[in-house]
Amino acid sequence: MAQVQRIDPVILPGKETVAAYCRVSTDSKDQMNSYQTQIAYYTQLIAENPEWELVDIYADAGITGTSIEKRDEFKRMLADCRAGKIRRVLVKSVSRFAQNTLELLETTRELKELGVVIVFEEQGIDTSQMLGEMQLTMFALAAQEESTSTSANIRRSYQMRMERGTYITN
Predict the structure, then answer these.
(1) Checking CA distances to 9, which of 98, 118, 128, 167 falls within 20 to 30 Å?
(2) Spatial distance between the Cα atoms of 12 and 130, rounded to a whole number of angstroms
(3) What is the pLDDT of residue 32?
């Protein structure tokens, strides 16, 4: 049977390099307010911690979390993680990070292998302290289902308004 040897990352002295990821799904006024609030919150939070050094705030506005493909800032953050620039990523919630269970698990696994910790503040999840992926998977499934349900409700609303003759195009 093959032997597996775990090699832990070398932690250099100095400040921990930290980034935040922010995202909102639409460009509505309320969502854009949330977007600005997330950016300001994480900028201040990281700046106030003397053990952290801000790498960047990565933020996608008006973009769904169901796929990584259209999220340029998310992809830029992943590239910086792969380049070793980031050791900790702060994010408001699992649903802000990803609403696709498979992508969420693949991304968190990759980052964990790179020695990058992800902290999902709303759920109180810190990937460096997780015993398993079950907890994260459950939150990911809930986020994915919420996204699917919201899309179905919006489509149903459009259909009902069209049937009543009250639908107004954007």
Answers:
(1) 98
(2) 23
(3) 76
